[in-house]
Design a protein that fits this description.
By secondary structure, the chain is mainly alpha-helical. The chain has eight helices and no strands.
């Protein structure tokens, strides 16, 4: 029977598919680390108090990239090239979501609206990351090879999501509510399309590596399209709501270092 657990078990049991999975994940996390580091360096003067939290966010993303690299190294695997159609972070930028890399490479301070855009983009993408890691934690928290990594990354993603809620609410109370809602909606609708396309691409690459029959690949593709249809109809709304999180000041302390994977 097809299930999220059985599919991921297939992927982690095969060296080639596991290397591709970890390489895709590590690339996205490292890219997120770079983006947050640049945003922290360019925060406008009136929002400098936010810079340490953005720096912590980026440090966590960098740590996740190192964890995925370490998981490969533990199995004697090397990172593999990331197929362009699976590059979630770059595809989002290509769709105009978040802050353009050209802006982040410049040395001009960002505006308050840029920070609102960054937080709204992060609120949407961290929702996705938190849900994905929660799924992995549910099935693989006690796995001897990846369990510790799954638990740590899942905890961090939950912190990132809480941070986005809290900071966006602060900006909403300061008068940016309408801009936040417009940006959140645009980000959510773009993200669900990119996520569908990336999911289809990842499953196609995994199917070729693992030799999935056409019928199995077709069922998986149909499931991805069904998820997109639900998200396009109603599911995107979970990505745009804001509520004060139970975890307050979730990124207020120093980052937790990555564990050793011997």
């Amino acid at each position: 029977m097809l299930s999220a657990k059985s599919l991921f078990q297939e992927i982690i049991d095969n060296d080639e598919s596991f290397a591709l999975f970890c390489s895709i994940a590590a690339s996205g996390e490292s890219q997120g680390g770079w983006e947050n580091a640049r945003i922290a360096a360019l925060v406008p003067a009136e929002q400098r108090d936010l810079a340490p939290k953005i720096t912590r966010h980026g440090a966590d993303e960098d740590k996740h990239g190192r964890i995925f690299d370490a998981l490969m190294k533990k199995r004697g695997l090397r990172p593999v090239p990331v197929p362009p159609d699976t590059d979630y972070t770059m595809l989002l930028e290509r769709h105009g979501i978040g802050l353009a890399h050209d802006k982040l490479r410049a040395d001009r301070p960002l505006t308050v609206q840029d920070i609102v855009t960054y937080l709204a983009h992060s609120r949407v993408t961290e929702q996705r990351a938190s849900e994905q890691m929660e799924l992995l934690r549910r099935h693989f928290a006690d796995h001897p090879d990846i369990g510790r990594a799954v638990r740590m990354i899942s905890h961090d993603e939950d912190n990132h999501l809480a941070y986005c809620h809290e900071e966006l609410l602060r900006f909403a109370y300061a008068g940016h509510g309408r801009a936040i809602q417009r940006t959140l909606r645009a980000c959510a609708l773009a993200e669900i399309r990119v996520y569908r396309d990336v999911s289809l691409a990842v499953m196609a690459h995994m199917g070729r590596i693992l030799g999935w029959p056409k019928a199995k690949s077709a069922v998986l593709a149909a499931g991805i399209h069904a998820v997109y249809a639900w998200e396009r109809f109603a599911g995107w709304r979970r990505m745009v709501s804001l509520e004060m999180p139970e975890r307050r000041d979730a990124l207020g302390g120093p980052p937790v270092p990555a564990p050793e994977f011997a």
